[in-house]
UniProtKB/TrEMBL annotation:
<keyword id="KW-0614">Plasmid</keyword>
<dbReference type="InterPro" id="IPR051540">
    <property type="entry name" value="S-2-haloacid_dehalogenase"/>
</dbReference>
<dbReference type="InterPro" id="IPR023214">
    <property type="entry name" value="HAD_sf"/>
</dbReference>
<dbReference type="Pfam" id="PF00702">
    <property type="entry name" value="Hydrolase"/>
</dbReference>
<keyword id="KW-0378">Hydrolase</keyword>
<dbReference type="InterPro" id="IPR006328">
    <property type="entry name" value="2-HAD"/>
</dbReference>
<dbReference type="InterPro" id="IPR036412">
    <property type="entry name" value="HAD-like_sf"/>
</dbReference>
<protein>
    <submittedName>
        <fullName>2-haloacid halidohydrolase IVa</fullName>
        <ecNumber>3.8.1.2</ecNumber>
    </submittedName>
</protein>
<dbReference type="InterPro" id="IPR006439">
    <property type="entry name" value="HAD-SF_hydro_IA"/>
</dbReference>
<dbReference type="GO" id="GO:0018784">
    <property type="term" value="F:(S)-2-haloacid dehalogenase activity"/>
</dbReference>
Length: 229
């Protein structure tokens, strides 16, 4: 565990803090229409197309979901209905945190400001943030930035808004492809990977691994200080 104590701890929200259940939502909509094998293929296609959809010019997140579902339907060979994409999108603000998040975040928030950089919309994210159970210093969305992660623009915007450099923060995510690869390329040395099982480990990107947010205090050098308090 690194003992670097950052000025800010910055986070991905969806998947890392919020239990971002896109796979479950897709199964709730399409599970009765597809065989188990086809459903597995649909979920994987939906995951891949979501990433592809955020790599171009910014668009509302509903369009990201809509286009990803439409492309997944085409790939699997079933009819696409716009109301199905809307139904999945409408689930997003109802999702709360992973069970380990409220206590783990609260421990760190007592000492270091917490910042969220999320691939979300201004009117969507706050419902999820309010469920985290800890004070958040700042929330920045892809809508505010005009770009989605893994593009660098959001990270650069965040650093400018915080008035600090990459050497001043610890960035926390469960995803290499959306967050930690970009953080590495931008020179953010202090990175924490929350191993939620979304992606395999990749030590090339020089991070501290934790199994859940309960391990974050130690990863940012607070464990000893908190024990002494």
């Amino acid at each position: 565990m690194t003992q670097f104590r950052p000025k800010y701890v910055t986070f991905d929200c969806y998947g890392t803090l919020t239990n971002f259940d896109m796979a479950g939502a897709a199964r709730r909509v399409y599970g009765e229409r597809l065989s188990p094998e086809a459903m597995t293929g649909f979920v994987e296609a939906f995951r891949g197309y979501r990433l592809d959809e955020v790599l171009g010019p910014w668009k509302p997140f509903l369009e990201v979901v809509h286009n990803s579902i439409e492309r997944s339907c085409k790939r699997i060979g079933i009819a696409f209905k716009p109301e199905d994409a809307q139904r999945i999108y409408d689930e997003v603000p109802t999702w709360g945190p992973h069970p380990d998040v409220p206590a783990g975040l609260s421990r760190v928030a007592k000492e270091i400001p917490l910042v969220i950089l999320s691939n979300s919309m201004n009117n969507l994210i706050m419902s999820n943030v309010e469920k985290l159970g800890a004070p958040i210093h700042m929330v920045i969305t892809a809508e505010e930035v005009g770009a989605y992660k893994p593009l660098m623009k959001g990270f650069e915007y965040m650093l400018d808004k915080l008035g600090c450099g990459p050497e001043d923060i610890t960035h926390v995510s469960s995803s290499f492809r959306y967050d930690l690869m970009t953080a590495y390329d931008l020179g953010i040395k202090s990175k924490v990977w929350v191993n939620r099982g979304h992606e395999p480990a990749n030590p090339y990107y020089e991070y501290t691994e934790i199994k859940d947010i309960g391990g974050l205090a130690a990863a940012v050098g607070l464990e000893t200080a908190l024990k002494r308090a």
